[in-house]
Design goal:
Blueprint: E1 2-8, E2 12-13, E3 16-19, E4 25-31, E5 40-43, E6 48-51, E7 57-62, E8 68-74, E9 80-85
Parallel strand pairs: 1-4, 3-9
Antiparallel strand pairs: 1-2, 4-7, 5-6, 5-8, 8-9
Bound molecules: copper (II) ion.
Copper (II) ion (CU) binds near residues 37, 74, 75, 76 and 79.
Amino acid sequence: MVKQTVIVDGGYQPQTVTFKQGEPAELVFKRVSDRGCLDVVQSGDLNFKAALPLNQEVSFPIDTSAAGEYGFACGMDMVKGTVIVK
Ligand SMILES: [Cu+2]
């Protein structure tokens, strides 16, 4: 299981996360400040939506069976990040 962590601190750091196709993967979000409007993260492409409590890790399994670029964003779809599977 490959785990990649995105720190949420007024934006997504890093903004782009890459996984290898076919490898079991988990995307972890950790919100460390209440800057911005990032208390919710969502992805229609990757089929998740959840609140991000401060200083807690929230993780989602990522389906890496198909190569591609998948978006995620804050609750208002303003701040965006990308998951690349290749
Ligand atoms: Cu927002």
